[in-house]
Design goal:
single chain, 168 residues, 5 helices, alpha/beta
């Protein structure tokens, strides 16, 4: 039997509130929030992955999840220092412990942590859906990067759907 979890990658204040804005930030945040609400209504596991580096330091405001999100204590929280959300932590084991087979992935940034987490999830045997309109970046060529990531992920067997087409 299939069971889906939602992975929200690096939707943190320090990545949203930069001097260079995230491309389509309001739309992206709304789409991520919509996915979170849909998963919550189905009582599915939600994983919040937070990147930690020299500016995103655990416990500071930049590291905190963006306020559009509604995490609960019962959700899964993963800290990471690498691009892939599965590296150097127990995310895979936690998901398998919940009998999760499928993942929906969204978040920041398209060409780094989102892409690498999608690849890592697929490498670990999960069926992966990337929400094509719920990931972004702050580059000048942001839309081209989003499109390229969607194409590349699709070429390795990851399902690409808009957030409105994703059913949990």
């Amino acid at each position: 039997m299939k069971k889906t979890a939602l992975l929200i990658v690096d939707v943190q204040n320090g990545l949203i509130n930069q001097t260079t804005s995230i491309y389509k930030s309001r739309e992206i945040l709304d789409n991520i929030s919509s996915l979170e609400q849909k998963a919550r209504l189905k009582d599915l596991p939600i994983v919040y992955i937070q990147h930690e580096n020299n500016t995103l330091i655990a416990g500071n405001e930049a590291w905190d999840l963006h306020p559009i999100l509604s995490p609960k204590k019962s959700d899964i929280f993963i800290n990471k220092q690498k691009s892939c959300g599965f590296d150097d932590n127990n995310l895979k084991e936690q998901l398998l412990g919940l009998n999760v087979t499928d993942l929906v992935i969204c978040g920041l940034v398209s060409h780094a942590c989102v892409k690498m987490t999608c690849k890592g999830a697929a490498d670990h045997g999960f069926e992966v859906t990337l929400a094509s309109d719920a990931h972004s970046n702050w580059r000048d060529t942001a839309q081209e990067i989003i499109d390229q990531v969607n194409l590349e992920m699709n070429s390795i067997g990851i399902i690409i759907k808009t957030s409105t087409k994703i059913e949990f």
